[in-house]
Amino acid sequence: PYFTWINKETCIACGVCGASAPALFDYDEEGIAFGLRDDNKGDAEVPSNLIEDLLDAHEGCPTESVRVYENKQK
Ligand code: F3S
């Protein structure tokens, strides 16, 4: 399984993640991304049909802020 959360400390609000994976990421009022499905906790398993989008977001983020793990992190 895959889990994801955004490192909000390093996100520069570039917008790639939400464009790549709109079902997984949204932005706060400052444009900083967060994980939509678990309030950025990283504890919700990413559905298998969204994994491709997740990996696109992960690869596309210029600051490596889209964290992807195969185990729960927090
Ligand atoms: Fe931020 Fe990276 Fe998304 S900079 S807006 S986490 S693609």
Automatic annotation (TrEMBL):
Residues 2-30 form the 4Fe-4S ferredoxin-type domain. It comes from the Bacteria. SUPFAM superfamilies: 4Fe-4S ferredoxins. This is Ferredoxin. InterPro entries: 3Fe4S_ferredoxin (IPR001080), 4Fe4S_Fe-S-bd (IPR017896), ET_Ferredoxin (IPR052395). Its cofactor is [4Fe-4S] cluster. Ferredoxins are iron-sulfur proteins that transfer electrons in a wide variety of metabolic reactions. The lineage of its organism: Bacteria, Bacillati, Bacillota, Bacilli, Bacillales.
